[in-house]
Design a protein that fits this description.
Chain lengths: 390, 390
Amino acid sequence: MRTVCIIGVGMTMFGRFPQSNVIELGRTACLNAVRDAGVATKDIQVAYAGHARTGQLHNRECGVGQSILWELGISGIPVSSVGNFCSSGSTALREAWLAVGSGMYDMAFAIGVEKLTGREGKGRPLTSDGVELLTVMGFSPPVYFGNVLTRHMKEYGTTMEQLAMVAVKNRRNAGPNPRCQYKDPITVEEVIHSPVIVDPLTLLNCCPTTDGAAAAILCSKEVAGRYTNKPVEIAASALCSGPYEKCKDITSFGADRLAALNAYEYAGIGPEDIDLAEVHDCFTIAEIVHYEDFGFCKKGEGGRFVEEGMSGMEGKIPVSPSGGLMSRGHPIGATGLAQICESVWQLRGVAENQVRGAKVAFTHCAGGFQDTIELGDIQSSAVTILKRGW
Amino acid sequence: MRTVCIIGVGMTMFGRFPQSNVIELGRTACLNAVRDAGVATKDIQVAYAGHARTGQLHNRECGVGQSILWELGISGIPVSSVGNFCSSGSTALREAWLAVGSGMYDMAFAIGVEKLTGREGKGRPLTSDGVELLTVMGFSPPVYFGNVLTRHMKEYGTTMEQLAMVAVKNRRNAGPNPRCQYKDPITVEEVIHSPVIVDPLTLLNCCPTTDGAAAAILCSKEVAGRYTNKPVEIAASALCSGPYEKCKDITSFGADRLAALNAYEYAGIGPEDIDLAEVHDCFTIAEIVHYEDFGFCKKGEGGRFVEEGMSGMEGKIPVSPSGGLMSRGHPIGATGLAQICESVWQLRGVAENQVRGAKVAFTHCAGGFQDTIELGDIQSSAVTILKRGW
């Protein structure tokens, strides 16, 4: 498959916009991406729109991409909706990557959008799809990650202070980033003493409720040269469903390990080559588990990794330099492409919270739970590795 | 892009199965496809699940493919949900085609599934997504096609008898097909005098409410040779969003014309080469418009085309030899892949209602309405052309 580059990215502010709908949010992100790429809208040949829960939010499950693009004067081209829980945006990017990589299309739009506010009285409560009986019985993502945390503390001596350091670091990273929902600094004490959501997870250990959209324009490497001298290459885009091991260790996610392994192998890149990572820090404990699952540190050492500043801006691998889901917010389908936007800006050297000399960026989204929670793994994990194409 | 073949297909009976869920339906269709292809499930490397409205029906919008495949022992591979209104199944096929065509994967699963019964008290009424204000004001697909019909009658002299002949023909075709929801023959008189849904559209001019699933296994032409000496080639898979012309002629669909044009061009095949067509006969008038939009006959001559038997089993192009949506039923996301199943059987020469010597099959699904109905076009049209690969 031929090499595919990103030549333009755009996103909205992330925050609570109860008066906006997904089409307006998507239009803003797409327009920003078109301007960033400097392409004519007529040159875009195919598009994918990632969204996970829009059906309950805007009275539609299909046609989101068509409606967004029509407002930009783009019609007639193939447009599809893709959904994959919290990886929906990453899946849109991946399908655009395959479409251009195949040689069928030279330029593609990947769009991610979600609206989580303004749901009052509409549809069922927000929890992961695919977990029906267990939701009725009280299962929800915070419950699951609360269990992961308890186990991680017991097995590896991870502390609430280490957890809080993830939140503090990500909030500090968010400071200069205008697109983040929360930018004010917080302290370890504040995180630990914020209201308990699922013991021992407190409020500031959880990502917030957010609306937003993000988009990227992809093209073949050859075409990229016509528009920019700083094309960002997609070195790998791996997507895995859960391997669903029985009696598994809940402090590690098989789908994440597999997706990272596939991405490293395809890109010919290892954790030692990564200059920054935007991971799926939906909860602070998730970020700690991700350090371990992606080989940033050894198993069980995630707590120390953050405590010793290894994931900080001057550390071994700066993680969530944008502020992450914890500070930017997590509009489900938009997150994967927001990570791509932030990483592209890092590689171009123009991020507000810039990692010096960043050449390789690692991004990750994951979500969904298998019906049979005994199998205990996520249904979808996406890892994308970007690198400078110049 | 390299040539992609279909080596296995499978579907469920189509009908009303209020006690079944989408996962059970999907599992049956997939298992049938695996058996038909004679592949090992571990050889399947990527999967796409098409479904349009499952969110309201089974408490999930994502993870349908993952859950179906897990029950077949398939996990760890990339699995995505794709949605595109009534073209959702066709879109799943198309993404699988791109994934294999790109060279990234050798074998892919395309799955389509939907459940339309058992919706009582769950979610909003069944109408096309993307039409919010107009739905509140009374818009629905039968209203739209009722208008199309009235206009077609006025412009071209199309008669209720000609309309009814589509329903009668498709029901006759369904007779020997055990997978159809309705198989008993009907008469022109019965169609005309069935209850009025939207004047002048009567009940037997509309497709029924149906549950079902269908699936196909795709692989590269090279790999296909290991499993079968009758691989069916995907000669083209075109997908178009609506061109949304202003003040357009409502007796023709721009997205359909564009998708067919793109497919003919890519395949190097014209209407004169087609041995059979499975079109989106959601209403009898739709099938008549499709004859014209796809170049099976001249504009305005669709009524005469069916009256003169040109779309009959012994005609110029047998249309809906399987029974079509009118008789098989229309579980939204499943329909595109059901058309693929029926067409593969036709090309292999083993269909219950066989078109003699069929070498090239044309399939078509379309759906969705743009918010601004003034623009009056569908949001998604998919045309797939299959041909014998031997």
